[in-house]
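Q: Could you fold this chain for me?
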Amino acid sequence: MISIGPGGEMFIGSNAYQIYRLAPPYDQAETLAKFDAYPNSVVQRDDYLYVATTDALLRAPYQAGDSLSRDDFTTYAELPGGSGHDTRTVTVGPDNRLYVSLGIQGNCSDQYIGESYDFENRRGGILVLDESTDPPQWQAYASGLRNPVGLAWDDTGTLYAINNGPDHWGYDAPREVLVRAEPGSFHGMPWFQWIDGEFQRDDCVSSEPPRPASEISKPVASLPARSAPLGLDFLPEGSMLPLDAVTAVHGSWGTQPDGSAAGDPATRREPRIAGIVIDAQGNGQVSDLITGFQDDQGNRWARPTGIAFGPDGAMYFTSNSGETGLYRVTFGNGPVGAEPELLDTTTGTEQENAPRS
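A: Sure. Below is the predicted structure, expressed as structure tokens.
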């Protein structure tokens, strides 16, 4: 996942067990620290850097340009760990609190973010950190999501999550969903699936649902099943794109006709960058923005993973397969936008010798 720090630095987590830092114009990456656990995402809040690994949120004191190593990081709050859907995405809310998303272990794992479940099984949604206690404690924020990797805040301070649905329903169902993750919201999984515009009971999990279907929040928008959307970001103010948000669609391994990996690779859902428009009633529509990552035989030269808009107005996305790395997308014939500059976050002024694009 990609994040932009308050001073303009870009941070990227990776399944290479490293986190990367890029100063504007973001064309040179350096390894900031190496880890012994999977650091999927990293954010800067105030004078600390936070890294979300599978089983812990780590932090280290940080100022723009600092050098760090793994030894500088300490465990700030343990997370429910375990195998299967082992990414953890951390974001800072407009309230300056820390939020982390995490998926359930499999398609039908009996896991839920609630007090009635053991800590290691409090998975499948979004946690918010209560830092008024010592040590800090995770609280439930949104539940019932199988694998919500992408998180993003809109300009009203509302959190959205893009969710990967299960594999056992086949190639065409259930559709992947974008949800409005609000305090206490329940999104049904794994007990209920969004099928043909309504929630249906999934009999693959036999436990009693923790909440009834009547309490499930309807999705904002949906994508075809087996799309595997990952990164999510809202457009910055003044963007020339007629969209509200974008998502990095990774493309699943599922093939026709039954959704297994054994079919023709050409039938796999294509990786793409998709645009999202949300109307005044809160309903969303998804359309293609960038395609062409997969050829007619099903070979993929890149698979979009994280996505974020930079302070220069450009859109950035990562690929973790094929031609791996960071990509920059600009729109129109003019310049990218305002020159990105590293800022001294204590004064709001440009740092001496700051890189320029």
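A (continued): The CA atoms of residues 312 and 338 lie 5 Å apart.
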